[in-house]
Amino acid sequence: MPTTDAIKQLANQELSKRFSLANRTQVAPRQTGMMAAQPSLRSSLSEFLRDTVDSTGLGGGYRQGLLNAAGGIETAADFAPFVGGSLALDDASASFSQGDLLGTGINLLGVVPGIGKVASDVATAARGPIRNLIQDSFPKSYKSSIIDPYVEAGIDPRTFTAGSGANIGDPRSGQIEQNLSTQLEIGNNRMGEVDTINLEDYEGYPFVTSMSDRTAAGDEIVSINGVPVNMSRRGGQDFMFDPENPDLVWASDESVVLKPKGEGLSDVSLFQFARNMKERSGGLDPLFIPWTMAPTGADFSQVGEVMLSYARNGMEPAALRALDKDIAGFIPNWKGIESPESLADFYAASGDARKAVINLMDKKYVDQGSLTSGQARYSMADEKQKMARDGNLMNVGQIDTSRYPLVGEPHPAYNTALYGEGRGRLENPIQVYEMMPQAAALGGMVDVMNPARNNLRALEMKPYGGIITEDVLRGIEMRRAMAE
Question: What are the beta bridge partners of residue 108?
Fold first, then answer.
């Protein structure tokens, strides 16, 4: 059996290939976008901050926030350590650190010297030690008997968290075979290939980020385990590329996208924040680069719809009648699962009510023909994100701030959408705090590649953003060079 050092060496060789700087566009010297307008001012600030901020040993990337337009520092104050800690007190996942899983392999990325948690999907003989290295990626209560079979299958074990909402629990050991034997028929693909883009081509642009679930888009679940479902998958990250959403870049709840304040909108509404970023950058519409949530984040979206659609076609009439009675306890106007209005009633209910229905079906009706909540998450999961790290940046769109958001039914679970378009997909994932190093510094983070749950929890409270500066790009490039 290979030693741990041997595994790390093999992993670093793999990372060197994945993140090699060979054939990449060089970051400097280059002047594009906003940076070209005031090169002397930026240069003077950069020199000053190099002598002050860099003396802390944090590196040039941490100058980014100080070089941004007014507002960067006041925004970053939200990341003070005590804020993240207090917000995480009610989070059921606060007890575990974030793993470093990339793509569909077992690729652990820790490029800060001394971290050493680096691995890739090397020889089969090395899988045991690799599983030991990623043990800390999941809740401490997870046993290897839970982690191993799901990791071997290439999917994050948290996908199969039991229940939903406030009543979640560890994946049930007795359901592993049932979950992993789930047969999906996916069809009617309406989304073509997505262009790969280089973030360096957007130097000087403002960006906005917000959380994104891992659900797929651009196709349809035809059946699960042979039971007809016929449900369109709408995303998630790929919402911005789905032709079913022309001219739209993102969907969320109206209270998130538009938050009235007096005669205008609150600065913490997604749309107003985007307009403010445009103004601060000198008139450039901001990019929208969402970050990946934990697998259970999908519960707010279409997971319940999958379970209801499956139940309608797969459960016996007596079981459906009992289920309808129980659902009415959470959704008082529930007309029955056979009603053509059932899904509309389900999505009109609160997020907590929808999660309560998922929890009900997972705990009470699995033996009567219901899917487990884990099977439903698995059926909705984007293949590219089944082993993704929390906090990953993957897709890049651009918000059209000249158009007021669409309020109506742009998405089954969300009633408001931002106009814009998808620009492309990053060749390799970037961690969200790499784009906001000033926030990381104020939050006391040492390694922006490995944000703790508290750090990501802070990002859930409102939109954040910044400017894609040369320093940010150099920091991203440097971290990958250190893996070579």
Answer: 119
